[in-house]
Design a protein that fits this description.
The protein is an alpha/beta fold. It contains five helices and 17 strands. The strands form five sheets. A five-stranded parallel β-sheet has the order 2-5-7-10-14, with no helix packed on it. The protein has a four-stranded parallel β-sheet with strand order 3-6-9-12, with no helix packed on it. A four-stranded parallel β-sheet has the order 8-11-15-17, with no helix packed on it.
Length: 204
């Protein structure tokens, strides 16, 4: 019997399109990791901590999340097939356009929101101008946090930000990103926290 490969803890990493198969991720922590388009097959996440991660178009097959703690994550257009969520706690998480039918024993705790469809958001001209200006930011572009492509905004992230900040504050806070490194802003939650810190720090 071959020993399962270990998946080590990660923080603020962009791991899009990773293929992680037949691995052991037990008791590890995944903080602000972006797993856009990743595929997990037969991965054991038992008792792991998954916080502030982005899962866009991510596939989970035969994965075990028993006893894991999932919080502040975004699951968008994910596919779950035969996954075990016994005694998993899921808090403050957003689940969009994703069926949970194959998630055994899943229970969603407080402040977890499910959207059947990808939300549409209304953007002011000021916000559009700010987003246009930030388009050239290499990290934000790579991580697809504000734009999915040259022509498309990341409306889900903008929709979530609009629920956290007033229209005026959001435009000013986003502009403040120009004065800071964006290298470690790998996920939606990390972006929200960064903007919050500008607000609290009295930058605006």
């Amino acid at each position: 019997m071959s020993k399962k490969k270990m998946v080590k803890s990660v923080r603020c990493r962009y791991l899009a399109k990773s293929h992680i198969i037949n691995c052991n991720a037990q008791n590890q922590s995944f903080i602000y990791a972006n797993f856009r388009g990743a595929i997990f097959t037969k991965v054991k996440f038992n008792n792991s901590t998954i916080t502030g991660c982005d899962f866009w178009g991510t596939t989970f097959k035969d994965c075990d999340f028993s006893g894991a703690r999932i919080s502040d994550c975004v699951f968008m257009a994910c596919k779950f097939s035969n996954c075990n969520f016994t005694a998993t706690t899921i808090n403050y998480t957003t689940i969009v356009n994703t069926s949970l039918a194959e998630c055994k024993n899943i229970s969603l705790a407080e402040r977890t929101t499910i959207y059947k469809n990808y939300p549409k958001c209304i953007l002011s001209e000021e916000l559009k101008a700010t987003l246009e200006f930030l388009k050239s930011n290499k990290n934000l572009r790579t991580y697809k946090l504000l734009h999915i492509s040259d022509k498309k905004y990341n409306e889900l992230n903008l929709f979530l930000l609009q629920q956290r900040f007033t229209a005026k504050a959001l435009t000013l806070l986003l502009m403040e990103l120009v004065n800071h490194s964006t290298k470690k802003i790998t996920t939606y939650k990390k972006l929200e926290r960064q903007l919050k810190s500008f607000e609290i720090g009295g930058t605006i």
